[in-house]
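thread: overnight batch results

M.L. [08:02]
morning all. the overnight job finished for the chain we discussed friday. pasting input first so we're all looking at the same thing
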Amino acid sequence: MKTKELLFSAHRDKPDVSSVLEVPQGATELLVLAHGAGAGMYHQNMQRIAEAMHGERIATLRYQFPFRERGGGRDSLEVSLSTVERAVELAGILEPELPIIAGGHSFGGRMTSIAASQGRLCNVKGFVFCAFPLHPRGKPSNERAQHLPEIKAPLLFFTGSKDSLFTAELFKPIHQQIRQSATIHTLDSVDHGYRVSKRSRRSEEDVFEEMGRLTRQWLDRL
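M.L. [08:03]
and the structure it wrote out:
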């Protein structure tokens, strides 16, 4: 495994932020992986997603949003989108031979999707959204997904069947618009933080390994 930690400029008005590049032997793609709103790139869930991808020959570039790097309140939308854009640019510089995919967990995935819908992410092969936050807890809506049809690349969604931030019925009208480009996989008995209800889960496969395996299969079909 090749590992490299480095700082990069996320936005002209913000201090540099941290990132970590991990490239397993024989890597075939590079996933630019953004963290959620509640925890940074070193959270165990981010590490386990990355490890599952490495097991499927997918390199990862994890990075911090400025608000997580410094602490304090969340950044403006523009700062967050700039961070995603510059992380994707960095990935292309660090590993120019590897096709790039991009996405992330919850907030990070949503920021990546907005940046993609605005045409800010160039040369990205596809997008992987882990626990896409369709709406705030207790406030069902699909407004956060209205931009998804503007993304002109294949999309892969992993959503837990017990995710309180994703109401499947509300997502159906959006899915109808993106059904030619979107693959949605439901993680059985899994909540927004990847906690598993062992009593009801039918599969014995580790949730993160399931995500890695299905990402590999999805990539092989692109």
